[in-house]
Design a protein that fits this description.
single chain; alpha/beta; five-stranded mixed beta sheet; 8 helices
Length: about 240
């Protein structure tokens, strides 16, 4: 496989996406893979779709694709609601056609856990908040998966982890949203502590986690203009509190 950039959790942040693509191409990446949560957010969902659709990257759906397409109007989250209203029927049809998982050679692409698009793979949440999952917890979540490498996103936290059985799990982090808070299944925050965009490069079995500067202030102002002051703070600081 040629030198490949792996992206996840763009969340409609067109400015961050353009910076990541430019950085990856400058570093010699020929192929790109997209791990989902592509458009949802109070930024540029339609414009992000317009950029990505003609590229035909191997792309999977995340939980936010499912929510944008299927959540009822009285229960849909604000970022998903904004995205649904901003996107054309053609763009929504593109989302609907995306697979939930994709095997490429000896690695598996999944958004969160295999078979589950909304629960973390390498992290666990309890009443104390977010913590690293134990090896046993991770292995339970990977039952039936025999791929040597599992590429996933969802938690927005860039990390590479090797299990005792030799399997490697890699999360590129989030292109477009470096922090957030959530209350499922318990209150917790996710934060990288930096506004930079994140992705990884896969080359001959080696994995490199990368961060990229971009005009996050432009993205933060866009969030504010669309009534999402919480997102503005996440984008400016990479912190959720």
């Amino acid at each position: 496989m040629t030198r490949t950039a792996v992206l996840s959790d763009i969340h409609g942040n067109l400015s961050a996406l353009e910076a990541v693509i430019a950085d990856a191409e400058q570093r010699g990446c020929i192929e790109f893979v997209n791990l989902g949560d592509i458009l949802s957010g109070p930024l540029w969902p339609s414009e992000t779709a317009n950029l990505l659709m003609p590229l035909n990257w191997p792309t999977i759906a995340g939980n936010h694709e499912r929510q944008v397409l299927t959540d009822p109007d009285d229960r849909i989250g604000l970022s998903d609601k904004f995205t649904r209203s901003a996107c054309s029927s053609y763009q929504l049809a593109w989302l609907a056609a995306l697979p939930s998982e994709l095997a490429i050679g000896n690695f598996l692409c999944t958004h969160a856990r295999p078979g589950n698009d909304h629960e973390y793979l390498l992290e666990s949440v309890d009443t104390e908040g977010l913590r690293d999952a134990t090896d046993q917890e991770v292995k339970e979540r990977l039952k039936g998966v025999d791929h040597e490498l599992v590429l996933h996103g969802h938690s927005h936290l860039p990390k590479v982890r090797r299990l005792s059985d030799g399997r490697v799990l890699a999360n590129p982090g989030s292109v477009g949203l470096p922090a957030y808070d959530d209350n499922r299944p318990f209150e917790h925050v996710v934060e990288t502590g930096s506004p930079k965009a994140r992705y990884l490069i896969l080359d001959k079995g080696e994995i490199e986690l990368l961060s990229v500067d971009y005009d996050f202030e432009c993205a933060a102002r866009r969030a504010e203009s669309n009534g999402a002051n919480d997102w503005a703070g996440f984008l400016r600081t990479g912190k959720a509190r």
